[in-house]
Amino acid sequence: MGNPRSASKKKNEGADSELHAAARAGDLGAVQRICSSDPHAVNSRDKHSRTPLHLAAWSGHAEIVSYLCNNKADVGASAMDDTGAIHFASQKGHIEVVRILLSFGVSIKSTNRKGMTPLHFAIQGSHLELVKYLIRKGANLSSKNKAGETPLDLIKSEEMRSLINELEQSLKNKDQTTRSRTDEFPLKPLNAEDAKDVHAHGSCDQVDTDIDTDEKREKRKGDDDIAQDSLPVPDAKKTKVSLAHLLAEDDIEEEL
What we know:
Oligomer: single chain
Strand content: under 5%
CATH class of the largest domain: Mainly Alpha
Number of helices: 12
Shape: globular
CATH superfamily of the largest domain: Ankyrin repeat-containing domain
Structural class: mainly alpha
Largest sheet: none
Number of domains: 3
CATH architecture of the largest domain: Alpha Horseshoe
């Protein structure tokens, strides 16, 4: 008789291997079927410590990456050398996969064991569109890997160097425009007396509101006094008759 645990383990390993193969091949139907029958397989590892997400990211299968992320895949999981899904995708220039991973909270600054960021990999692979996207999303051109290299040190072509120069200049111009607008409308600091007044009254706007409220209150009071004076004086005799009539009705109700 065989060992039931050993048979179960082999079955699980077979399912895991099948899921990795499906994720790498871009077989969404197979990925969905396996994850539905075994939800824990989504974070299973192969002999290189890679998850199905790593293989889907490496292969550029954005739809599968999105499905795995939505089904509890560990988006920050690292394979050997601390390489994450975003690093695999950046090595191959898969911009849509990178977009999905960032939307699920993966850091654009994440590094592997060698200190390589997604931007390092994108520039190293000469993936122009991905480089452009990462820089616009705030990737740091000055970050150094463990070898002391910035992404700029990994440029291999003049086309890439020209692109980065243009992007840097564009960002610099944008920053200068923002600063010039701030200079046009500088915030005037409060002096000691202004600060004291604001503290005493809450704010300048509050003071104006209080003044308006007092004026309205006084006007309303005057209007009420005029209205009161214009009311007719009630006839004492009519009042007494009405009271007598009400008392008579109460007496009748008590007798009933």
